[in-house]
Design brief:
heterodimer, A: mainly alpha, MetI-like fold, B: 12 helices
């Protein structure tokens, strides 16, 4: 007889309770996103539930927000979206750029150093975001430097390093030193062997790291909440300014765009690292 | 010619990443240095006054509220995470497994504002829950679930659930089926197998997951800010208030240090508890 943690038949109250709790978990995880999606299709001006009629008018509104240039509020959503994207791309490039050589050095180097370095680069993951936000704000205010988007890029890089490094390391772990030795014995220089042989083999892990950095930076709220200025502000901050006033359905339609983008990117990461590493 | 990694080459390869993480280390040091500053608005001299100033009933209530909410949210998240981990490891279809993974993972990654909008639409005075209950005639006046502890608690459970599920999934994968089969063949019921075999086998993973979830919830900021209004003063919010209206920077730094310290104590206690209980099992 096959025994499972979740019996497929029979099991009585045990099976019932386990499934019930799992369903509660799924509902808690997904209901907010589902409701936002449903309400974004409402034809009404307010966010009363259930929507009396369905329409795409709020999606039209979002597109109008991005295409018309005259209104002040419309201007700032375009600006903050562009800033968000710019920050996310810079963070993605920098974090991956520094993590690839580090992952190589850690995978090929001393194992004792590796343990310490892995610990060091996990720290941003466990450090409370509020305190990080305040600390970076205090530094920025004390130095009184006008560094533009780097105000946000620098903390974001620290934040995504653990995720990117983990993906690069797991990509390195499958590459044995023999492939490099083969390349070198055929006349390649060691650096060339890394560039032409190792890096192409790390491709999936590197891509997963890139996407992870992009998603995390693009969705980050807490640190940015402390660091943003009138000139440098991101999309989550713009959305926060909308919760303070009453919620309007066009913001929900914009949210749906973000949800779709995130889901697509997560599916992509999941495909890239399928079977070789877990997401955490 | 050898392609062994020399020490200097390893250092050169690590240097860019070390530079990238330097501001983070600087920030950690800065917050500590500020918390023992003699002046509230700049670093000057040494004083423990910022810490002494925090010994107020107001801040004490905030610490207590933070610990309480984080603890309840962790408990709720764990109760749902274990069944979810079982379900996730038991699904046969690849598509179903992927979809469930994404559903669970999304709240951790998705813009917190979108999720806050969702909760506001669900729980608000004219939201989904209240309109449904009212149209069914169960309630007459809307029940308030938002901008109080209930709303914050739901938000915390939702955002921290993935942090609980994924570590448990990897420990569930590590359980050998023989243990379960042995228990079952000896006539143990499903419940008995669960509590006497599965949970003890999962225990290190459970404590590990619970610690991460607790630390994450104790330092929550966006969720209490968006779903708690002004009324649920968790430590993250209290720290922000010291900075934003009050400009008490050294006080905020000291409160931050206390938050880190409190979280560390709970994590150490959890690790100790995990060791103690597993020793008991072996005997």
């Amino acid at each position: 007889m096959r025994v499972d943690l979740l019996p497929s038949e029979g099991g009585g109250t045990y099976r019932f309770v386990i499934i019930l709790l799992a369903i509660c978990g799924i509902l808690i995880s997904s209901l907010p996103v589902i409701v936002v999606t449903i309400m974004s299709f409402s034809a009404a001006d307010n966010t009363g539930f259930p929507p009396e009629a369905l329409s795409l008018r709020w999606y039209g509104e979002v597109i109008a927000m991005f295409t018309t240039e005259d209104a002040n509020s419309a201007q700032s959503v375009v600006d903050s979206t562009l800033t968000s994207l710019l920050v996310a791309i810079v963070v993605m490039v920098i974090s991956t750029g520094v993590c690839i050589p580090l992952a190589y050095a850690l995978a090929r180097g001393d194992t004792r150093i590796r343990g310490g370095m892995e610990l060091l680069f996990t720290l941003p993951l466990v450090f409370p975001l509020v305190i990080l936000g305040i600390a970076f704000l205090l530094i920025a205010e004390s130095l009184r430097l006008d560094i533009g988007i780097w105000r946000i890029v620098i903390p974001h890089v620290a934040l995504v390093l653990p995720f990117v490094l983990r993906n690069c390391l797991s990509a390195m772990s499958g590459i044995s030193i023999e492939v490099e030795e083969a390349a070198v014995s055929l006349g390649a220089s060691p650096l060339r062997a890394i560039w032409d042989v190792v890096i192409p083999m790390m491709k999936a892990g590197i891509l997963a790291g890139l996407i992870f950095a992009l998603i995390i930076s693009f969705n980050e709220f807490t640190i940015t909440f402390f660091m943003y200025t009138v000139d440098v502000s991101t999309l989550p901050i713009w959305m926060y300014s909308r919760t303070v006033s009453s919620l309007d359905p066009s913001t929900l339609a914009l949210s749906v765009f973000i949800i779709v983008a995130d889901v697509v990117l997560i599916v992509l990461v999941d495909k890239l690292i399928a079977g070789r590493a877990s997401l955490f | 010619m050898s392609i062994q990694l020399t020490r200097s080459k390893a250092l050169a390869f690590s240097l860019p990443a070390l530079i990238a993480i330097l501001p983070f280390l600087g920030a950690c040091f800065f917050i500590f240095r500020f918390s023992i500053s003699g002046e509230p608005s700049r670093i000057e001299g040494f004083s423990i006054q910022p810490y002494l100033d925090l010994m107020t009933p107001y801040f004490g209530r905030s610490v207590w509220l933070t610990l309480r909410l984080a603890f309840i949210a962790t408990l709720l998240a764990m109760v749902m995470a274990v069944p979810l981990a079982f379900l996730l490891t038991n699904l046969r279809s690849r598509f179903a497994r992927r979809s469930l993974t994404i559903v669970i993972l999304l709240p951790l990654i998705l813009n917190l504002l979108v999720q806050a909008y969702g909760w506001i639409l669900l729980l608000g005075p004219s939201g989904v829950l209240n309109s449904t209950l009212r149209s069914l005639g169960i309630i007459e006046r809307p029940i308030f679930l938002l901008f109080n502890e209930t709303g914050v608690l739901l938000g915390l459970v939702q955002t921290s659930l993935p942090l609980a599920v994924f570590p448990i999934v990897s420990s569930v994968r590590g359980i050998s089926r023989e243990h379960l089969e042995a228990a079952s063949s000896l006539g143990a019921s499903h419940w008995r197998t669960f509590f006497d075999v599965t949970v003890p086998l999962l225990r290190p993973g459970l404590f590990g997951a619970a610690s991460i979830v607790f630390a994450f919830n104790a330092s929550a900021f966006a969720i209490p800010l968006l779903l708690g209004g002004r009324r649920v003063q968790m430590m993250g919010i209290a720290i922000r208030d010291m900075i934003s209206p009050l400009f008490n920077w050294s006080g905020a730094a000291a409160a931050g240090m206390i938050l880190i310290f409190v979280t560390l104590i709970v994590l150490l206690f959890s690790a100790w508890l995990a060791r103690m209980t597993s020793e008991k099992v072996e005997h």
